[in-house]
Amino acid sequence: MSLQSAMEFVRRLREDPEFRWALGECKNKWERRRFVITQGYRFTPAELVCATSPGGNASEDRTAVIERVRRQQHGHGSYAFM
């Protein structure tokens, strides 16, 4: 998993309307996950949160904290967005 991959994914979402449209056509979170992976992106939900944080607060340390809180609240297998 990679924070850099999440940041590249977010950048592409912002810049590529066809990519954004294709992601929006996915019917559920499993299709979204499959689409993201087949497009070559690998990241955790926490890394995605960091990549979209305002002010550019993306860091590996911040990712670790978000991931720890997410696991405490939702368990290891929980993915809210994806």
From TrEMBL:
<feature type="domain" description="Nif11">
    <location>
        <begin position="1"/>
        <end position="48"/>
    </location>
</feature>
<dbReference type="Pfam" id="PF07862">
    <property type="entry name" value="Nif11"/>
</dbReference>
<protein>
    <recommendedName>
        <fullName>Nif11 domain-containing protein</fullName>
    </recommendedName>
</protein>
<dbReference type="InterPro" id="IPR012903">
    <property type="entry name" value="Nif11"/>
</dbReference>
